[in-house]
Structures are given as C-alpha cells and as structure tokens.
Amino acid sequence: MPADQYASIRYLVDDVQAAVDFYTRHLGFRLNTSAAPAFADVIRGPLRLLLSGPASSGARATPTDAAIPGRNRIHLVVDDLDAEIDRLRAASLSFHSDLVSGPGGRQILLADPAGNLIELFQPAPTP
C-alpha cells in the first residue's frame, strides 16, 4: 500500500447527512465525497471514514444480524481531553462512558447519530 493512501473504516449509518454533519462539525473531519443519502466519506489525517446508509452497497452486503453498531470504535487522539469534553458538551453531545484513566492515558466514548462509537484519547505524559 502506498504511504500516502488512506486507511479506511466503514460505519453503517441510518442517516448519511446527519453522520457527515456530526463528523465534520464536531470531530475535525472534512467531506471528501458525497452520494447522500446512500453514501459519503469523510477524512481526518490518514483516516477515511466511509459512511454507508441503508441504500449503499456496503450496507446491503452486511448480514442483518451484523448490521447494528458493535464494540469496535475509531480512536482519535486529542491534545486536551478536558477541553474536547467541554466543547462537545457545549454542542449538546452526550457521552457513552465516564472518563477513564489508566497508565497509557485518559479516554471517553461518544457515539455518532447511528450509535457507532468514537473514543477520544489523550495519551499520558511521557516521563
């Protein structure tokens, strides 16, 4: 794979435009292409997030029993987790976990409009 190629993840969403708005307004993604209401993709750094609505070929290929949001999540590193939490709460977004601290850093989960999880993570300071 060429070094300048994106790593892509597909999320199944109920409403493509709502997902695009969520990721571009709140999480720093930019819209790459849109064929809403079936499909759009957004980009942040080397990550290309494929947002597939019910009419997309990606969603149609998914077995019904596997079409619900799962335990997988994208992992976004942030510089100041407390500031991100405050900013997102001010935008009336709610979180799906408490803030968790561990030896590697701190994290919190939120969900997109379809229920797909996003982990915001601030690494622990290096000694």
TrEMBL record:
One Pfam family from the record: Glyoxalase
SUPFAM superfamilies: Glyoxalase/Bleomycin resistance protein/Dihydroxybiphenyl dioxygenase
Domain called VOC: residue spans: 5-123
Record-linked InterPro entries: Glyas_Bleomycin-R_OHBP_Dase (IPR029068), Glyas_Fos-R_dOase_dom (IPR004360), VOC_core (IPR037523)
Gene3D superfamilies tied to this protein: 2,3-Dihydroxybiphenyl 1,2-Dioxygenase, domain 1
Name of this protein: Glyoxalase
Species: Micromonospora deserti
Lineage, highest ranks first: Bacteria, Bacillati, Actinomycetota, Actinomycetes, Micromonosporales
